[in-house]
Amino acid sequence: MSPSVIEEHIAKVRAQVEAACQRVGRQASEVKILAVSKTQPAEAIRLAATQAQQQAFGENYLQEALEKQALLTDLPLEWHFIGSIQSNKTRAVAEHFAWVHTLAREKIARRLSEQRPLDLPPLQVLLQVNISGEASKDGVAPQELKALAQQVAALPRLSLRGLMCIPEPTEDALAQRAAFAQLRKLLIELQHLDLGHPLDTLSIGMSADLEAAIAEGSTLVRIGTAIFGARQRGAVSSSHF
Ligand SMILES: *Cc1c(COP(=O)(O)O)cnc(C)c1O
């Protein structure tokens, strides 16, 4: 994709976020845009950063992310891990990312806390909730969320920032909102537990459901396709595993 196209796409996403905020009486500054760069080359990330001042990038595949990070150390980027975490990969995640959106197991949380380097700030974590039930196996079940949040909150090197979900894809705007509303309700319940953590983040909304997410209180939208264009099938190669 040509340089100016990425810049244009980011401008368009920012305008979309602004319009969606305006419609529901929110400030655009309350909603952070995470550019999801999985399968995209390091050069595309560089363009987004240097031409459009995009700072936060989301990656799903560890090996691929580490390779790109190594090519971009001259830029002040904030890296978010948004893929599923295997327990033998926690050390690299703890060492190379500022945020994790997909925490759903206590064992993984414990390892991330133990392995977070002391010269870095605490790892910012979100608990991924399996809102749509059987549709996706990833995420903690809503009825187990409270117990997991209490365990994570007790870990010294993690800062529990909030919740994330990936609802079952649907074009029905009301169904999109209903799923996001459930997550918002769960976050409010956690806030009432006074866990001693910020709990200020709702990571909801992707390219196709950004409006609904912002209407339901999203503070962070994860946008891939609308910024970088369609991902090529098979582009991930072996770094997938
Ligand atoms: C790929 C991905 C996104 C971005 O999806 P788009 O539809 O390309 O905007 C957001 N969140 C997660 C967890 C993803 O894996």
UniProtKB/TrEMBL annotation:
Keywords (A to Z) from UniProt: Pyridoxal phosphate
Domain of life from the UniProt record: Bacteria
N6-(pyridoxal phosphate)lysine, modified sites: 38
Annotated ranges, domain Alanine racemase N-terminal: 17-231
Transmembrane segments: none
SUPFAM superfamilies xrefs: PLP-binding barrel
InterPro entries noted in UniProt: Ala_racemase_N (IPR001608), PLP-binding_barrel (IPR029066), PyrdxlP_homeostasis (IPR011078)
Role, per record: Pyridoxal 5'-phosphate (PLP)-binding protein, which is involved in PLP homeostasis.
Family named by the database record: Belongs to the pyridoxal phosphate-binding protein YggS/PROSC family.
Name the UniProt record assigns to this protein: Pyridoxal phosphate homeostasis protein
Protein's organism: Marinospirillum alkalitolerans
